[in-house]
Predict the 3D structure of the following.
Amino acid sequence: MRTNWLHKIRQKQYSLESLLKEVAAWKAGGERIVFTNGCFDILHPGHIDYLAKAATLGDKLIIGLNSDASVKRLKGETRPLQNQQARMFILAALAFTDAIILFNEDTPYQLLSQIKPHILVKGADYKINQVIGADIVTANGGSVALLPYLPGNSTSGIIARMG
């Protein structure tokens, strides 16, 4: 009998309280926690490449997802193109995703202060001193990894080509 994939997808979508319990259990079991975040409005090959590489840096990949309100503040009134439930569902369907959590703030700083992952991942267009939450992660013995983007892939570029 095949796996109930929809059930597995829903299980990856966490509230803060349930995620903190899961993270504590993962850490107690010696698992290395990787965290990254973003809007992930139109999932494209660049996102998949980035997230797959991030997942290889540890045992569990947590994705912090900007809420609809947060995306609007950051990207403008016409965004997001897909609502937060759709974006969560798509990201949770990826095999290498272990947990997804929404955050309403403009940055995941508050979330990072509670999760305290072992590895914080951002794109290589950042410098480590520009990465929000790097101070939290390094103060707790973790590290920051900067991953290169797959050239020619961006949500803004896709939207521009559609217009």
Observations:
- Strands lie at 13-14, 33-38, 60-66, 99-103, 119-123, 143-147.
- The chain has a mean pLDDT of 92.
- The radius of gyration is 15 Å.
- DSSP finds eight helices and six strands in the chain.
